[in-house]
Every structure is written in structure tokens, then in C-alpha cells.
Amino acid sequence: xxxxxxxxxxxxxxxxxxxxxxxxxxxxxxxxxxxxxxxxxxxxxxxxxxxxxxxxxxxxxxxxxxxxxxxxxxxxxxxxxxxxxxxxxxxxxxxxxxxxxxxxxxxxxxxxxxxxxxxxxxxxxxxxxxxxxxxxxxxxxxxxxxxxxxxxxxxxxxxxxxxxxxxxxxxxxxxxxxxxxxxxxxxxxxxxxxxxx
Length: 197
Hints:
Blueprint: H1 2-28, H2 32-55, H3 58-82, E1 93-94, E2 98-99, H4 101-113, H5 121-125, E3 130-131, E4 142-147, E5 150-161, E6 164-167, E7 176-179, H6 183-188, E8 189-194
Antiparallel strand pairs: 1-2, 3-8, 4-5, 4-8, 5-6, 6-7
């Protein structure tokens, strides 16, 4: 009798548990709309992860930015060579009107590198651009001068390599190429800045 009581109790429990499990399974089965929402939210998570992976690839981007700077500096130098012979004009910033020294650099970097430079030599030096030592000069750097080593910086030119630079020298002059080794420019040289790269 005791055995029958235990058996009937076990059967009753088994039936109750399997009925409850079936009820839970039926409740957990996803509705089509719910399942679509789950897939959409899962896709968003996957997409977010993809974006994060792309953002973490910093070194290839840095390398690409460096190549772009070198290429635009080459264009700046090439264009400066083409402008040799254009007349000096105080306050000038265009081919049609001529250039003063800083106006030449403003024009070159705007048209060939898509950069906006400060308008005067003083502002260029104080712009927060990278300071460059004379032994580290690269084509596209700006080189600054005072008068025979005296007074404030009053002149700027574009370094083009091999100790040469292109500049708009003074009233009555024309854009020309000169050497940093020339006695006057060697005495007058004060500093250099790198705007691009």
C-alpha cells in the first residue's frame, strides 16, 4: 500500500512538471515580430563592433595622413617654382596682383594643400605650428629671416630642398630662388616652421 502511494505521488509530480515545462516552452517561443526585433538589435551590436574595429586601426590612417602631407608639400613646392618671376607686391596674395613674402605662402598652402595659414610672418611663427631645426628642414617648410641678424622676423620663404628657398624678396623685386648659404640669408636666418605634416 505504501508502495502504491509513493508510485502515484511520483506519477502525479512527473505529470505536473512536464505540463509546467510545456507551458514555459510555449511562452518562450518567440513571436515573429519579437524574433525580428531580436535579429535587428543583434545586427546593431555586430555593426557597433565593426565600427569599433575600424576605429582601432590607427596606424594605417596615420601612415596615409603622412603620405598626403608629403604629396601636398610636393605640390606646394612645384607651384612655387612655377611662380618664379611674378612681381613682388606689398599686401599681394594673387598671381594677377603679385605677392608679398607671407602672401606667397598663404596662396601656395591654400591652393595646393587646402590649408589656411595666418597672414603675417609674426602670426605664422606664433601659430602653434611645428618648430623645425635647420638640419631637419624638408621641402615645404617655411623659413624665417630678420635683417642681417637684427630686429624682429620680417621675412619668410618656402624651403625647397638642397639649402634652397623660394621667396618674394622686396619692393621692385620678383619671386626668386635663393640659397640659405648666401652670406646675407645665412646671417638673417632665424627659425623654421612646418605647417603640413
